């Protein structure tokens, strides 16, 4: 049905369009015939000596009768005789005698030219006048203008009974002749846009019609129409006709009705065959119903078994959650053990030194060692409070910290380990302060972890070297480089409990904790192998601007 509708609609639409084109050719011939016939009348009347004598003498008693007789002979709409001032002195419509047309285009252009002039003027009452005018000359001077109006309005009345709508446009695109009175004086686009808003029912019917036909060229009185246009060989005029799809639909629907009837017969046969098939299937379904009841019983047993398994799974999940809690506690214990090993080793060294100093009666130097031991005890307390930052984000004691001072403090903390071995440490730092917003204790903890890793990496090296480089650009960057064997597995480097050390020498938490601390400070900790050998750890932290330094807690003291 869709293919038939498409093919027949296209074929019948083309037939209707050809018929409309033939009708437009006939309309165009009628208009040209009327214009050509009327264009000769001003030339004949301009040569009439009676009209010229009347204009010279001023005697117009018989002039109007002459014009009325000429109008009947040529079937013109009207004929007017104007004197040199533009006043109507004779007319086929006696009500117009005395009317002045001094500014009318047909009068002004008629005076200027010695040829027949065509003008189309819009009437005040609506519609368009199509006038041929020509100057009357006597003794070499213009004595008046003869104006003959072409009878084109009669075509509008004739077209209205044949086509849905017909319109003639001039060279500017304005409608000058039309079967639709509301279109006069408008462009074609403006005329087609002036239609009443459709109701919901009209929109539904219109959508149905648009689906059944080709895309309409326009809408006329709420109906889709096809548009046919032709050229009139006169001053750039064009004629447009609009034809509805009703005749097309009637012819197409007749064929579609036959198709629908055929489909209905086929459907009846199909329903009969399906009913026979349904009876056969009904017997088969009765046999299958018994099997379905047995299957439902098995499904009930499986559902009960699944519920039991889900209960066991819930118990297993609770056990797994408890195991996860115990693993977290083990991780925290390992972290505390790792972080407290460094201060305890330093305290042991300071106590041994203080014992020797007291034996040698150098009490003042021994007091200095005890003061360092006291600082280490405070540091151990701070570490136990801050280690939980690995398990959750934290850091409420942030303050402006000079990275140079933090590096010096970390080196002082590592002094006993550094004296125990021969290691060359090179520091490269800027002279200006490098201020960051961080927790001083935790920041020193990260630097100590990096130094300790570097020391461990250079144990088997003949000439161990550690280089610390502090640079300040868009961010503060601290690089710790060693000349050890380098890093073997960069992907697992910052994972908890992963280490390359022997059992008992390391927990694998140092770099993981350091990375978490640097992330809390808004920075990042990275590592890579150096080109000449060894490993390089880089700690990047955001710099603290001067404005933030003044508003930060303890900012003024830190700046001083």
From TrEMBL:
<keyword id="KW-0812">Transmembrane</keyword>
<dbReference type="InterPro" id="IPR003661">
    <property type="entry name" value="HisK_dim/P_dom"/>
</dbReference>
<protein>
    <recommendedName>
        <fullName>histidine kinase</fullName>
        <ecNumber>2.7.13.3</ecNumber>
    </recommendedName>
</protein>
<dbReference type="InterPro" id="IPR029151">
    <property type="entry name" value="Sensor-like_sf"/>
</dbReference>
<dbReference type="GO" id="GO:0005524">
    <property type="term" value="F:ATP binding"/>
</dbReference>
<keyword id="KW-0175">Coiled coil</keyword>
<keyword id="KW-0472">Membrane</keyword>
<keyword id="KW-1133">Transmembrane helix</keyword>
<dbReference type="InterPro" id="IPR036890">
    <property type="entry name" value="HATPase_C_sf"/>
</dbReference>
<keyword id="KW-0067">ATP-binding</keyword>
<feature type="transmembrane region" description="Helical">
    <location>
        <begin position="254"/>
        <end position="274"/>
    </location>
</feature>
<feature type="domain" description="Histidine kinase">
    <location>
        <begin position="335"/>
        <end position="545"/>
    </location>
</feature>
<dbReference type="InterPro" id="IPR029150">
    <property type="entry name" value="dCache_3"/>
</dbReference>
<dbReference type="InterPro" id="IPR005467">
    <property type="entry name" value="His_kinase_dom"/>
</dbReference>
<keyword id="KW-1003">Cell membrane</keyword>
<dbReference type="Pfam" id="PF00512">
    <property type="entry name" value="HisKA"/>
</dbReference>
<keyword id="KW-0547">Nucleotide-binding</keyword>
<dbReference type="Pfam" id="PF14827">
    <property type="entry name" value="dCache_3"/>
</dbReference>
<dbReference type="Pfam" id="PF02518">
    <property type="entry name" value="HATPase_c"/>
</dbReference>
<keyword id="KW-0418">Kinase</keyword>
<keyword id="KW-0597">Phosphoprotein</keyword>
<keyword id="KW-0902">Two-component regulatory system</keyword>
<keyword id="KW-0808">Transferase</keyword>
<dbReference type="InterPro" id="IPR004358">
    <property type="entry name" value="Sig_transdc_His_kin-like_C"/>
</dbReference>
<dbReference type="InterPro" id="IPR003594">
    <property type="entry name" value="HATPase_dom"/>
</dbReference>
<feature type="coiled-coil region">
    <location>
        <begin position="282"/>
        <end position="319"/>
    </location>
</feature>
<dbReference type="InterPro" id="IPR036097">
    <property type="entry name" value="HisK_dim/P_sf"/>
</dbReference>
<dbReference type="InterPro" id="IPR017055">
    <property type="entry name" value="Sig_transdc_His_kinase_DctB"/>
</dbReference>
């Amino acid at each position: 049905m869709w293919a038939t509708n498409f093919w027949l609609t296209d074929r019948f639409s083309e037939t209707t369009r050809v018929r409309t084109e033939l009708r437009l050719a006939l309309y165009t011939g009628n208009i040209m015939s009327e214009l050509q016939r009327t264009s000769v009348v001003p030339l004949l009347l301009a040569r009439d000596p009676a009209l010229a004598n009347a204009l010279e003498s001023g005697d117009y008693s018989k002039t109007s009768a002459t014009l009325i007789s000429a109008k009947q002979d040529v079937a013109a709409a009207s004929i007017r005789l104007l004197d040199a001032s533009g006043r109507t002195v004779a007319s086929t419509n006696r009500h117009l005698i005395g009317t002045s047309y001094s500014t009318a285009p047909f009068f002004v252009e008629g005076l200027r030219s010695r040829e027949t002039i065509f003008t189309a003027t819009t009437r005040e009452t609506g519609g368009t006048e199509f006038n041929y005018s020509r100057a009357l000359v006597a003794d070499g001077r213009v004595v008046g203008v003869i104006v003959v109006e072409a009878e084109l309005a009669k075509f509008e009345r004739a077209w209205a009974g044949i086509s849905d709508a017909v319109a003639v446009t001039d060279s500017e695109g304005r409608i000058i002749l039309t079967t639709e009175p509301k279109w006069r004086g408008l462009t074609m686009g403006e005329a087609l846009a002036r239609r009443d808003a459709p109701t919901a029912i009209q929109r539904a019917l219109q959508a149905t019609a648009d689906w059944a036909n080709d895309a309409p060229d326009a809408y006329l009185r709420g109906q889709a129409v096809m548009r046919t246009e032709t050229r009139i060989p006169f001053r750039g005029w064009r004629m447009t006709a609009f034809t509805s799809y009703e005749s097309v639909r009637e012819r197409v629907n007749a064929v579609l009705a036959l198709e629908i009837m055929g489909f209905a017969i086929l459907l009846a046969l199909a329903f009969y065959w399906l009913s026979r098939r349904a009876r056969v299937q009904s017997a088969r379904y009765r046999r299958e119903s018994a099997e379905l009841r047995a299957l439902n019983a098995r499904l009930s047993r499986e559902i009960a078994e699944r519920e039991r398994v889900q209960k066991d799974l819930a118990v297993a999940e609770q056990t797994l959650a408890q195991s996860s809690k115990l693993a977290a506690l083990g991780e925290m214990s390992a972290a505390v053990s790792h972080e407290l090993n460094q201060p305890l080793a330093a305290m042991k060294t300071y106590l041994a030194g203080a014992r020797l100093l007291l034996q040698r009666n150098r009490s003042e130097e021994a007091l200095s060692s005890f003061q360092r031991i006291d600082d280490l005890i405070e540091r151990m307390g701070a570490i136990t409070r801050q280690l939980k930052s690995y398990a959750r984000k934290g850091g409420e004691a942030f303050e402006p910290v000079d990275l140079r001072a933090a590096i010096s403090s970390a080196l002082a903390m590592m002094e006993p380990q550094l004296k125990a071995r021969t290691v060359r440490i090179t520091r490269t730092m800027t002279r200006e302060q490098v201020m960051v917003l961080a927790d001083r204790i935790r920041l020193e903890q990260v630097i100590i972890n990096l130094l300790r890793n570097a020391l461990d990496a250079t144990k088997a090296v003949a000439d161990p070297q550690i280089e610390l480089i502090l640079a300040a650009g868009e961010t503060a960057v601290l690089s710790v480089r060693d000349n050890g064997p380098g890093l073997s597995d960069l992907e697992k480097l910052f994972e908890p409990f992963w280490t390359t050390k022997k059992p008992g020498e390391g927990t694998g938490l140092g770099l993981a904790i350091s990375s978490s601390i640097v992330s809390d400070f808004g920075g990042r900790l990275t590592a890579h192998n150096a080109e000449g050998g060894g490993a390089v750890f880089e700690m990047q932290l955001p710099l603290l601007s001067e404005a933030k330094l003044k508003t930060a807690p303890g900012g003024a003291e830190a700046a001083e």
